Amino acid sequence: MKAISDFCTTWSREARRFFTDWRLVAMLLVIPLFYILLFGEMYSQHRVKEVPTVVQDNDHSPRSRQIVQALDATDTFHVTGAVADVQQFREMNWQGKAFVCLVIPRGLQRDVSAGKPARVLAVVDGSNMIIANATTRGIAEVVQTFSAGVSLRKWSARGVPPQHTVTQTMPIEVGLRLWYNPTFNYTNFLLIGLVGTVIQQVVLMTVALAWAKEHEENTFAPLRHQITHPIAAALGKLSFYVMVSFAMSVVLFSLPFGRFGVPLRSDVRLLLTATFLFIVGLVGFGVFISSLTLSQLLSTQILMLIALPSFLLSGFTWPLFAMPEGIQLVSKVLPLTHYLALMRNAVTNGADWAFNMAELRWLFGFAVTGVTLQFLSVWWRFSSGTTTETPMEGEHAGTASIQQATNRA
Q1: What is the rounded (10 degree) CA torsion for 202, 203, 209, 214?
Q2: CA 404, CA 333: separation in Å to the nearest integer?
Q3: Could you read off the pLDDT of 56-83 as tens digits, one per residue?
Q4: Are strands 51-57 and 100-104 parallel, antiparallel or unpaired?
Q5: Which of 13, 142, 371, 404 is most buried by a 10 A CB count?
Q6: Would you say domain 51-179 falls under CATH 3.40.50.300?
Q7: Domain boundaries in the chain?
Q8: What digits encode the pLDDT tens for the residues 241-264?
Q9: Which band of pLDDT confidence, cut at 50, 70 and 90, is reported for residue 41?
Q10: Burial class (CB in 10 A: 0-12, 13-18, 19+), 22
């Protein structure tokens, strides 16, 4: 009976401690529910739908318009307009305005009417394998269905029974041109995004833990006596962690491009500039988050909770246009979303500076905001006259007082 009583006492004690600590309740009960609801809403459409699509119609015939209408009628594609050539589609793709281009050749209606083989070309952005898989399968289904209807009408007009038309040759075939990742290589698809995610989490964790440790060990007070201006301290801390983090990032990127053969299709200076701005913002925000918590443990908990959703919501795997509008707004606030969008656009798709200026401007704003918050955090620590005496310091002070009294005696 004593063992049962001890068990019940311990159980009730832990229950009281758990339910009176809001952080534990949130960590175990609230946050997991929030994550599942968030991710469930993100994938609520079950598959990629309404992929922005353009058409290069060189035939301009009723038959070609019927194909375009059949394509737009599906829930997989959303035909947004026409392009003059594939290069125009490439530029729209770099801008994130189109991911598929259907090229209809001149003479399509003439060949179909004459019973000759005809062929359309689907050009697909293969850098995102989820989009590529959905659209290549969708175009094939649309064209085959349309071709079956044409064959049925043609052979029925010649008196062939409908059950025999399925054995006849389809009048229209689909050619596929998959850009950027024609072999569906998962290394090329995922590795760059994971590198960006690692950079974000490592920089945030390192800076936040270092700043919180300085508060816990009360090592900032001696620095305040050595340096008279807080801006100098802020710049010193910022420049050190930016330099170390940037060097770490260069080493990380050398692995995908060197060791694993991921192609780099754009100017390396564009990649380095974006990474530098991203790191500057991360260092600033890491110091700011740690200033709010002043605890290594709490800083770690907060940053670990940020890590999981930021990559999934970035649009690197599941495209942004396939998410509900509310989640799209959340995604566009995350700095990782803009950094990975530039990474894919530049590294994988080969877009140059002009087609990445929107993301560069956003990262620049993120860097300025991060630096501002970091300066404010350091300024607050400088202007705060309070210092926290650690137990170790108090023990040393007491020992010194006793020693001085002994010496006087």
Answers
A1: 150
A2: 59
A3: 999 999 888 888 988 898 888 999 999 9
A4: parallel
A5: 142
A6: no
A7: 51-179, 186-386
A8: 899 999 999 999 988 888 888 888
A9: confident
A10: exposed
Q: Which residues pair with 122 in a beta bridge?
A: 102, 176
The pair of three-digit structure tokens given for residue 19, joined into one six-digit string: 């339910």
Token output for 167: 């054995």
Tell me the C-alpha to C-alpha distance, in Å, between residue 388 and each of 10, 221, 294.
34, 9, 12
H-helix segments, 259-388 = 268-293, 296-312, 325-333, 335-343, 357-383
177 by DSSP, 3-state: which? strand
For the chain, the residue count is 409
The count of C-alpha atoms lying within 13 angstroms of the C-alpha of 190, restricted to the half-sphere facing its C-beta, is: 7
289-310: pLDDT as tens digits: 877 776 767 777 777 777 778 8
| 118 and 171 Cβ atoms separated by less than 8 Å | yes
For 242, residues 6+ apart whose C-beta sits below 8 A from its C-beta are: 276, 279, 280, 283
CA 162 to each of CA 114, 169, 185, 380: distance values in angstroms, whole numbers, following the listed order: 20, 14, 42, 82
In the chain, DSSP finds a helix count (H) and a strand count (E) of 17, 5
What's the token pair of residue 342?
Answer: 């530039």
In tens, the pLDDT along 192-238 reads: 889 998 999 888 888 878 777 777 777 666 766 677 677 777 788 88
pLDDT in tens, 143-167: 877 766 555 555 455 554 555 444 4
Segment 368-386 shows an average pLDDT of: 80
* pTM metric for this prediction: 0.77
Residue carrying structure tokens 């290394």: 187
